[in-house]
Predict the 3D structure of the following.
Amino acid sequence: MNRENRTSISEFFLLGFSEFPEQQQIIFWLFLCVYLVTMVGNLLILLAIGLDAHLHTPMYFFLANLSFVDICFSSVTIPKMLLNYLLRSKSISYVECMVQIYFFITFINMDGFLLGVMAYDRYMAICRPLHYNTIMCPRLCIILVMISWIITHLHALLHTLLMVQLFFCADNTIPHFFCDPYPILKLSCSDTYINDLMVFTVGGMVFMTPFMCITISYAYIFSKVLKIPSAQGIKKALSTCGSHLTVVSLFYGAIMGIYLRPSSSYSAQDMAATVIFTIITPMLNPFIYSLRNRDIKAALKKIKRELFKDPRITKY
């Protein structure tokens, strides 16, 4: 297509989940409740880890970062969708869309890197317990998180800069509830070969690095666990990994079904899978980690007693 026939658009239109007003109202209240639960749940995790000195360990440091990222991740997509419903609008400006893409890529990759770092932390705790405190020192933990932030921001910047080079024709309707990079690429009337190439090369490396770290870490963990003579020891070792494995399965299972193929194959049905890792997983993370973790539950109960002055506690 010639350059003069291309159109520079100023906004996109997000179709969302439904065109029917009755269904839109149900979807609005559902997503509002999910967003509030996500905010409250992750803020409680941050509060519990911040206030309880017993939780100032590498594992909970990474969990606190994961909760912070989940708060940001949910805030990238849901508030705009809710605002559009209140304003009875489906539009999102071109600049807002590019900003949304940037932070979407940043936080989705940061989630993956944190899950990878947490898997490495569990490997050190189970397979090399005598060296754990020496190796997983505060300095290393901070460096791992900082490197993850730098890589994810650079990766998001690369894809966003490539995205703004594209031209779009008359069709600016996105069959999604936010600016997902894949349906945006599908709308472009420019050649998206470079964009797709970056997704499969740079994006694949950024995506697969933490996934391989998780896979290798748990291969060593399970190898170590199988050598434990007592059933109680096996149960104790696996209990420290159960929550993490649940989150990893939800997160990577949904992502692999969408982004490990060309953008041209994206369809509206993929939006349902996107909901899992953009909305459901950030909401479930606090429940998964708190319900399966005695330390978190104890810290939350302590906060509850402090906030609500539990009458069961008697001062002498």
Remarks:
- The longest strand covers residues 11-14.
- Confidence is low (pLDDT under 50) at residues 1-6.
